[in-house]
Design brief:
111 residues; four-stranded antiparallel sheet; alpha+beta; 3 helices
C-alpha cells in the first residue's frame, strides 16, 4: 500500500499486461493509477491524487476524505458490555480503549 496526503492506494500487478495498477481506497469517488515500474506507479499515484484534488477544487466540490474520524460499528451487546468493563477498569473511556485496540492491530500490519 502507498500513502500520499492522507490517501491510501492499493496496487496489484497484471502479469499478462505487465503493468501495475491500483486504486485509492476508502473513497466514494474512483481514483485509479498505473505504471510499468514501481517508480512509475508511485508517481502515477501521487499525480492521480493531485489531479483529483485539483478537479474537486475546479468543480467547487469538497474532495472525499479517506476517513472522518467517526466510526459507528455494531457488535454483540455482550462484547460491548465486556469491553466497557475492561476500559473502565483501566481508567479509560471505551472510545479510547477501542482506538488503542485498533492501533495495536494496525501496528501488526505495519500501517
Amino acid at each position: 500500500m502507498m500513502e500520499y496526503k492522507g490517501y491510501i492506494g492499493k496496487a496489484e500487478f497484471d502479469d499478462r499486461a505487465e503493468v501495475f495498477y491500483g486504486e485509492v481506497i476508502g473513497l466514494r469517488d474512483i481514483v485509479t493509477f498505473r505504471g510499468a515500474s514501481v517508480k512509475e506507479l508511485q508517481k502515477s499515484f501521487r499525480d492521480s491524487i493531485n489531479d483529483y484534488l485539483a478537479f474537486c477544487k475546479r468543480m467547487g466540490k469538497a474532495p472525499d476524505v479517506p476517513a472522518s474520524g467517526r466510526l459507528i460499528l455494531r457488535i454483540p451487546p455482550e462484547l460491548h458490555s465486556r469491553a466497557a468493563v475492561v476500559a473502565k477498569s483501566e481508567g479509560r473511556s471505551l472510545n479510547t480503549w477501542v482506538a488503542d485496540a485498533v492501533k495495536e492491530k494496525l501496528f501488526a500490519y505495519h500501517l
